[in-house]
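Lab notebook page, bench 4
Experiment: in silico fold of construct C2
Operator: M.H.
Input chain length: 393 residues
Purpose: comparison with the prior construct
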Amino acid sequence: MSKIFEQEKVWLDKSKYDEVECVNYEKLSKKQENNDIEVVAIDCEMVGINHDGREDMLARVSIINSKGEIIYDKFVKPTTKVTDYRTPVSGIRPEDIEHGEIFTKVKQEVLRVLKNKIVICHSPKKDLKVLKISHPRCMIRDTSTYSNFMQFTEGRKPSLKQLTLHFLGASIQEGQHRSVQAAKAALQLYMIFRDDWESQINLKNNAVIQEKENNDIEVLAIDCEKIGVQQGNTHGNMLARVSIVNSKGEIIYDKFVKNTAKVTDYRTSLSGIQPKDILYGVGISKVKKQVARILKNKLLVGHSLKNNFRMLEISHPEHMLRDISTCSTFTILTKNQKPSLKRLARYYFETVLPDGEHRSVENAKAALRLYMLVRNDWEKRLKKKRKNSSRKK
């Protein structure tokens, strides 16, 4: 076993897990030192709910940084009756979560911690599901699907316990502190193979970029409508409609979203949303899944896309986004301030975007037209920016 593996075996030692330090970056790769993107690892513990205890509910979240230091570790107060604490496996006891943090706060805190970071996890789909969050796929490193690890199990998904025992010579997932140990193990497995792993991803990304440069990648435009709602004493916004058009300006998705909170303002004069529209709309979880499938591997155009993604609670790779509100060609018009879509449409097309009915459809079409108008120059600038960035590295 290599010296690195021997060193890491101690790092995962159950009796010393609080005092030990992470793998030294310099011993693994000089290249890793120069990586500007922050890396964290996450693991969650679940308890069972419903009559058979098979359905998962979040009970604990642990996140560590690239030095192996715990930067977030909280128990989560149950939102419904727990029927199986799964203590032998999870280490979770009733008293741990009885006075835990409320789920909504944990969700928001975790989102903030993970934002713009590479997230290491073993089978993250389950963790993200119980957290009810998403993270850009290009920023996730799943130790259960990495090719070098799957070779070890002849193409099957290996367990974290198998990988840790084989590659690190350490035994994990034995009772208390399981989520912290699991996160540390996943991080170290990633660090050992980081250079090769990232090289594989870079090759895939370069292929996507090349495809985009050849204008072969499909372009879509999106716009969302929102309404005002009240949940308890809190006032906010809720998604009410999602419209997506293809590169020909044809509507490929246009759904109203069923309201799940008390509506305080339908904003009908601007959005065209009527009570009957969202009363029989589609459930938000179904809309999110449908939209995510449609947007996958597509170049996405829109105006103020962050607002749309915030309402949809989904994400999309940054390099696949074209936000009209931040394009330098358009911001010059407003002295580097974000221009409204209405103003841009009026200036470039002498068109007045309608309020009311079909607003989200018309907005998506307008954003698409604006992108197509400056597409060649915009993509050339982005290509040049990528080249300059790669030279600096």
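Observations: The longest helix spans residues 359-392. Confidence is low (pLDDT under 50) at residues 1-34.
Next step: discuss at group meeting.
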